[in-house]
């Protein structure tokens, strides 16, 4: 099933100039970037996005971190995109993430774990709608899809 997922490279990925390397992992897998924007996330958007963590002790530092520098927000589409992206991203704790995953290769600390990816279709829809307007999401076909998908 073709799905859309929300993915965000966090400030540490941007500051460490890892955006190109990370983006290429999704494209090389056969996923399609259908929306992307570099943005400075303000406190209100950060609190809305991470609202499920509002009662956790790390919430304040998470908001401070995510608003500290630009992030790269994306919508990525593909067959079973949500689970595929989660596998590419790796475990939330980079020290538990397998080598070869984005977090396993580029991150060392849970508080600076490089990237966010939607964990369910409901989360993906909510997060996409939070960060993108409908007219910012492109609908196009990649010519090599017939080489990737049967």
Task: Walk me through what this model shows.
This protein is an alpha+beta fold and 150 residues long. It has a single domain (2-148), classed as 2-Layer Sandwich (Alpha-Beta Plaits). The protein is 40% helix and 19% strand. It contains eight helices and four strands; from the N terminus they run βααβααβααβαα. The protein has helices at residues 11-15, 19-29, 43-49, 59-66, 81-89, 102-106, 121-131, 145-148, and strands at 2-9, 32-39, 71-79, 115-117. The longest helix is centred in the first third of the chain and has 11 residues, at 19-29. It is globular and about 45 Å long. It starts with a strand and ends with a helix.
* Euclidean distance between termini CA atoms: 12 Å
User: In CATH, what is the homologous superfamily?
Assistant: Nucleoside diphosphate kinase-like domain
Order of helices and strands: EHHEHHEHHEHH
Count the beta strands. 4
| Strand order, largest beta sheet | 2-3-1-4
Rg, rounded, reads 15 Å
Q: What would the average pLDDT be, to the nearest integer?
A: 95
Query: What is the CATH architecture assignment?
Result: 2-Layer Sandwich
What do we call the CATH topology?
A: Alpha-Beta Plaits
| Biggest beta-sheet profile | 4 strands, antiparallel
Number of domains: 1
- Uncertain runs with pLDDT below 50, 5 residues or more? none
Quickly give the structural class. Answer: alpha+beta
Percent helix range: 40-55%
What is the molecular shape?
A: globular
Number of helices: 8
**What portion of the residues fall into strands of 2 or more residues?**
15-25%
Report the top-level CATH class: Alpha Beta
Keywords: ATP-binding, Cytoplasm, Kinase, Magnesium, Metal-binding, Nucleotide metabolism, Nucleotide-binding, Phosphoprotein, Transferase
EC number: 2.7.4.6
Catalytic activity: a 2'-deoxyribonucleoside 5'-diphosphate + ATP = a 2'-deoxyribonucleoside 5'-triphosphate + ADP; a ribonucleoside 5'-diphosphate + ATP = a ribonucleoside 5'-triphosphate + ADP
Function: Major role in the synthesis of nucleoside triphosphates other than ATP. The ATP gamma phosphate is transferred to the NDP beta phosphate via a ping-pong mechanism, using a phosphorylated active-site intermediate.
